[in-house]
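Renewal narrative, Specific Aim 1. Our central claim is that a sequence can be written position by position from structural information alone. The example that follows is taken directly from our test logs and has not been curated for this report. It begins with the structure tokens describing the chain, in the order in which they were read.
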């Protein structure tokens, strides 16, 4: 069920808010959590009810293993930990990587693999990592107790079930057991409504409009059709902004839905395209995923508490696996490896040449340019498509004339006459928003988190702002319809 659909906005969400509110009022924490679980299962099972059994089975198995880890000690404790991790990775690996493994093996060994298309269960990468983190936190004695209804609500919580953020158990457990959760909070609800509307605006008005300039060019590249340098650059930049607004829009909507239900979810974005180097970028982009890989892979490998060469090795391993987590394809491994390489270069510069610094505006431009180029591989159907588009972007096969697409070029006369239907219009508008405006956290913070210089909008102001944005989004949805979020694919 899509956040940006009429079904979700006008039926599912109001009914869920009413049920959870009534459940908390009548039956306390357990009543509210039971309603959240019921709504989340309906939300997840709406697309393919069959995958609901996989989600519920995963929850049952992981919670029981977590209880065994909690009560046992020594080698038995470690054995159940690794059993749980292995089971989670095996299920994820089968659905997400089995066909990729067979196809790659067929290029090396002389056999014809029997490959059957597998449908990737929505959110499996996110809820798998979330449950692995749960088992590890229990093993490290960071979690002391876990009731089944709390655990089920933690894993299945619909605002973040499909595309994150990846949440730690203690983050929501403390809120579930707090007396504050049982009380209605006007400021929380108004802020949540404002966050949801901002995210809906990013998705429907910005990301979906940019998508028009992305799909045809990348599809043409996958077919090997003639693509001009201007078209390739336009598609790359459009996708760079589309992914930003699409994913950050989802993150805003998730935080907003959580706030409307009285739950504060962790931030997942902090103006990542304002990053002045790759280290700074990964502190701002998909923050919950970065923290997961840092805490459960990079630090256990040794982090930076080892020799410099091993430190660089740890960075590369982490980013290669981060790339593979995003998708089963060599283009994702390339994307992760290149991010690992630039992170290594950043750390090398800091360690060996601490006084060699690029002016911050130039650093932001250079970082954004490289990231945009790497998004080309990320969006491509395979590595061959990515290499083909790179050749076209840098005119390695000669300057090609535009193909049969009707996309406008960066001609100023065409830009003026085409207006809002032109690619330059949307690219310039996107750049002004990304670099010229404060981020969502500055516009609309939850209470007690006003740490910046900009004021927090009060409840009435937030409600008015949300209403205006909401009206604009509904007008756009009426003409274009709802579309899936990009991170549903990962």
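The sequence written for that structure reads:
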């Amino acid at each position: 069920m899509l956040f940006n659909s009429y079904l979700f906005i006008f039926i599912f969400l109001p009914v869920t808010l009413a049920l959870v509110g009534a459940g908390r009022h009548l039956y306390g924490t357990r009543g509210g959590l039971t309603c959240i679980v019921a709504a989340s299962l309906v939300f997840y099972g709406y697309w393919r009810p069959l995958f609901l059994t996989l989600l519920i089975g995963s929850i049952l198995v992981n919670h029981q293993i977590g209880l065994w880890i909690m009560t046992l000690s020594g080698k038995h404790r470690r054995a159940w930990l690794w059993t749980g991790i292995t089971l989670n990775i095996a299920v994820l690996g089968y659905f997400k990587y089995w066909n990729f493994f067979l196809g790659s093996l067929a290029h090396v060994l002389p056999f014809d693999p029997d490959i059957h298309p597998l449908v990737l269960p929505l959110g499996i990468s996110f809820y798998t990592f979330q449950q692995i983190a749960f088992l590890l936190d229990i093993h490290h004695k960071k979690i002391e107790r876990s009731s089944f209804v709390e655990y089920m609500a933690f894993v299945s919580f619909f605002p973040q079930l499909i595309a994150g953020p990846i949440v730690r158990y203690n983050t929501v457990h403390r809120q579930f057991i707090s007396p504050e959760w049982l009380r209605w909070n006007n400021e929380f609800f108004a802020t949540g409504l404002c966050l949801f509307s901002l995210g809906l605006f990013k998705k429907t008005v910005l990301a979906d409009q940019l998508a028009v300039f992305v799909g045809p060019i990348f599809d043409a590249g996958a077919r090997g059709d003639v693509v001009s340098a201007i078209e390739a650059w336009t598609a790359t930049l459009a996708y760079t902004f589309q992914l930003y607004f699409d994913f950050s829009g989802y993150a805003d909507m998730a935080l907003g839905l959580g706030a409307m239900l009285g739950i504060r979810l962790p931030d997942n974005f902090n103006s990542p395209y304002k990053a002045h180097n790759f280290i700074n970028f990964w502190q701002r982009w998909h923050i919950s995923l970065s923290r997961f890989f840092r805490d459960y892979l990079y630090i256990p490998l040794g982090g930076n508490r080892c020799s410099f060469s091993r430190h660089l090795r740890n960075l590369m391993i982490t980013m290669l696996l981060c790339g593979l987590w995003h998708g089963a394809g060599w283009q994702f491994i390339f994307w992760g490896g290149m991010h690992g390489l630039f992170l290594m270069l950043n750390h090398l510069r800091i360690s060996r040449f601490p006084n060699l610094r690029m002016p911050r505006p130039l650093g932001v431009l250079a970082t954004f340019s490289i990231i945009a180029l790497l998004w080309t591989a990320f969006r491509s159907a395979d590595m061959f498509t990515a290499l083909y588009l790179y050749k076209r972007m840098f005119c390695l096969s000669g300057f090609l004339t535009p193909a049969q697409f009707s996309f406008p070029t960066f001609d100023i006369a065409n830009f003026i006459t085409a207006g809002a239907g032109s690619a330059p219009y949307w690219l310039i508008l996107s750049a002004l928003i990304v670099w010229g405006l404060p981020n969502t956290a500055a516009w609309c913070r939850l209470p007690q988190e006003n740490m910046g210089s900009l004021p927090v909008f009060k409840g009435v102001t937030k409600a008015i702002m949300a209403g205006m944005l909401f009206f604009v989004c509904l007008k756009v949805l009426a003409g274009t319809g709802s579309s899936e979020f990009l991170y549903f694919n990962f």
